[in-house]
Amino acid sequence: MNPTANPPAVEKERKSVSLLDAWRARIRSGELGLIPVLIGLAVIWLVFQSINGHFLSSRNLSNLVLQIATIGMLGVGETFILLLGEIDLSIAAVSGVAAGVLVQLSVAGVSAWLAILAAVLTGAVIGLFQGWWVTYVGVPSFIVTLAGSLGYQGILLAMLGQEGTVPISDKFLLSIESSYLPAWLSWVLAAAVVAGVAWNVSRTRQDRFSRGLDAASGASIGMRIALTAIVAAIVVLVMDSYRGVPVMGLILLVFVVFFGFVLQSTQFGRHVYALGGNAEASRRAGIPVRTIRMAVFTLASVMGAIGGILGASRLGSASPASGGGNLLMDSIAAAVIGGTSLFGGRGSVYNALAGALVIGSVENGMDLLSAPSSTKYMIEGGILLIAVTIDTLTRRRRQRAGR
Amino acid sequence: MQSMARPAPDATPVLRVEHLRKSFGAVQALTDVSLDVYPGEVVALVGDNGAGKSTTIKIISGVETPDEGRIFVDGEEVRIDSPAAAERYGIQTVYQDLALCDNLDIVSNLFLGREITRPLVPPFLRLLNKSAMEERAKPVLDSLGIRLPALSTPVASLSGGQRQTVAVARAVLWGSKLVLLDEPTAALGVAQTRQVLDLILRLKDKGLGVIVISHNMHDVFQVADRIVVLRLGRTAGVFDKASVTREHVVAVMTGAAAEVNGA
Q1: What is the C-alpha radius of gyration for chain B, rounded to an integer number of angstroms?
Q2: A221: closest CA among A32, A18, A27?
Q3: Which of A76, A80, A233, A291 is the most buried (most CB within 10 A)?
Q4: Measured between CA atoms, how close is A204 to chain B, in angstroms?
Q5: Residue ranges of the ABC transporter domain (chain B) (predicted)?
Q6: How far apart are CA B107 and CA A349, in angstroms?
Q7: Which residues from chain B sit within 8 angstroms of residue A402, using beta carbons?
């Protein structure tokens, strides 16, 4: 299978596909991907910036990154669930329970890493439980996770006891939120990301040519690498002109990139999409449907727990409000606004990151304008409706495309 | 016992089923069904609703197990107790609903559940080898004369005939000896039906055995070498296409003509 082992004896006709052609074909068939959400994000940023010149300041953007870390983590977990065509209404409550476990253990003198491990394990156990209930008992995920959500809120209240809010005193746990990367390290990481992308796309291209398949054109590959480099450089520059790249942002990015890779390039990811596209066909094709379901539910709750840990570090405490409020709706909205379909099989974790940026930007911008909650809610509702409408309309277009 | 018309008496049938019997509770779905398929032969399985076509197909593809009866693959008696077992014997079924994932592209559907991978984090993660899959799919598609849009096109944007083609190509890709097609032209227009019938003939040219279930007598007479008529759970007749009329087949199907063995 090693492509270098058998170089093509005859130079085959090399057909190259330019990036623009690829995009055009995707748009025609209704595969819009990240395009609508990125346009939406640009519009939102421009609007807020024109009203309040501080919006795009590096200080505010840095703050925005901290704000979306929890929503982003939960959005990634929710994306996996939505890809199966299921829903998880408990993910925010799970984050609350994880925060409670983390803080109570830490206060009891357990070391920070052990407390983190315990919080993550709590998420895993909850996820396994919910996954088992959905997969083997057959209760719809909507109900299992709705019931779960109520139950976990109860558990959190019981855990926190009379005192209500329990503050974190552990320095390390608090430092997750307040740490920033030194400038040199951000640049090294940015360079590593660009190098990784460049290595990956050019290797894929080489491999495809050596097998006589069409591949992306050299120009489009160059464009892709340049685009990555530009985005990475802008992010680092902007963040460095305040305090540097926030560690929370890096953690979120690492998870997004890792799970993006899992979904796009591994057999497990392929099976998640297959299951969301046609569960019966997947079963007949011999895909271990139940194992995949269990794994995804577990993964989602683990992501909820990790989001809860980040949230606790940011708040500096666990309280009865941990994982409450808008968090659930925000994280589902992040996934859906990003373009992940509620009907399963379509979307990606990158969409969740973009969606979290949209939600975070609206909240942040509204706060900056000191707009009342009433306006905030209405605007967020409107954005969600528009996002799902775009999904519905492109779906129609997709169905028309070939018939 | 039927005496069957055989195109090549010296060859071994790729599939032979004898005296299948199957009941679901009080319902006797199959009473006595026998048929055989030779390599490079298209056999049409026809019958009225409830004649037992679906049950027969389900037994051959391993979804149901018969109460009685014997199944031979290449002359050897086998037990087909699961779809996986059917696949092991080289039997591939293209269901009426095609069992495609609309959200995935053509290659992904061809390799659904059988992705080419290499271990990444054993035993959890395996890396997909996308270009290897595409490389392997191309010659199979070419050999079937299949013209499809770029293999990275999502199946959702294909026409009905193209979707059928993808489903059949998947069966062939897995090196089957026998392909079962359940109503392959039911939902298709004239041009697309033509494409699918051509594809069936190419499967035959490749030396595969093909069983086609169809309601459409016109299609049956276009592609089949022999026609097996089921009626009320029995094999009511087996005909060479050349020596039978459409009217007669319909008459046997509906019971208007006496059961005829051979032709």
Answers
A1: 19
A2: A18
A3: A76
A4: 8
A5: 15-257
A6: 22
A7: 156-159, 162
User: How many separate helices (H) and strands (E) can be counted in chain A?
Assistant: 16, 4
Residue B40 lies in a domain: yes
Q: Quote the tokens at residue B193.
A: 């039906």
For residue B64, give its domain range: 15-102+161-169+176-254
Residues from chain A that touch B102, judged by Cβ atoms under 8 A, are: 277-278, 345
Note the Cα B84 to chain centre separation in Å.
15
Q: Domain spans of chain A? A: 53-179+267-394, 180-245
The architecture in CATH of the region A53-179+267-394 reads Orthogonal Bundle (1.10)
Question: Is any Cβ of chain B less than 8 angstroms from the Cβ of A281?
Answer: yes
Mean pLDDT per block of 10 residues along chain A (403 residues) reads 40 55 64 78 92 91 93 96 95 96 93 96 97 95 96 93 86 91 93 92 88 82 90 92 92 95 94 94 89 96 96 92 88 89 88 92 90 86 84 69 44
Cβ–Cβ contacts within 10 Å for residue A147, how many? 15
Residues 6 or more apart in contact with residue B126 via CB below 8 angstroms: A266, A267, A268, B115, B117, B118, B119, B120
Q: Do B101 and A273 touch (CB under 8 A)?
A: yes
Tokens at B152, concatenated: 């990275």
Local confidence band at B1 (pLDDT 50, 70, 90 cut-offs)? very low
C-alpha closest to that of A270 among B99, B151, B104: B104
Interhelix angle A183-210/A218-240, rounded to 10 degrees, is: 170
Q: With contact defined as beta carbons under 8 Å apart, do A390 and B145 qualify?
A: no
Residue B132 lies in a domain: no
Count of domains forming chain B: 1
End-to-end CA distance of chain B: 15
B227 pLDDT tier (thresholds 50, 70, 90): very high
CB B145 within 8 Å of CB B198: yes
B129 located within any domain: no
Kindly list the strands in the beta sheet with B178-182, ordered across the sheet, starting from the edge strand earlier in the chain. B76-78, B68-73, B15-24, B27-37, B234-240, B226-231, B42-47, B209-213, B178-182, B91-94
Provide the token pair at B66: 């018969």
Q: State how far residue B84 is from chain A, nearest Cα, in angstroms.
A: 8
DSSP state, B241? G
What is the Cα–Cα distance from B88 to B99, expressed in whole angstroms? 19
| Selected residue with higher pLDDT from A42 and B140 | A42
The alpha-carbon gap from A70 to the nearest alpha carbon of chain B, in Å, equals 26
Q: In B149-169, which positions are buried (b, 16+ CB within 10 angstroms) versus exposed (e)?
A: bebbbbbbbbbbbbbbbbbbb
- CATH number of B219's domain: 3.40.50.300
Q: What average pLDDT is seen over chain B?
A: 86
Alpha-carbon torsion (B185, B190, B196, B202), positive or negative: positive
| Among chain B residues, CA nearest to A287 | B113
Beta carbons within 10 angstroms of residue B202's beta carbon: 16
Q: How many CB atoms lie within 10 A of CB A374?
A: 8
Whether chain A has a CB inside 8 Å of the CB on B84: the answer is yes
pLDDT score at A398: 62
Continuous H helices in A241-372: 247-265, 267-277, 279-284, 289-315, 327-337, 349-368
CB-count exposure of residue A328 (10 Å: 0-12, 13-18, 19+): buried
Strand B15-24 versus strand B125-128 pairing type: unpaired
Question: What ipTM score was computed for the predicted complex, to two decimals?
Answer: 0.83
Q: Which two tokens stand for residue A392?
A: 């519905």
Q: Do A286 and B115 touch (CB under 8 A)?
A: no
Residue B46 lies in a domain: yes
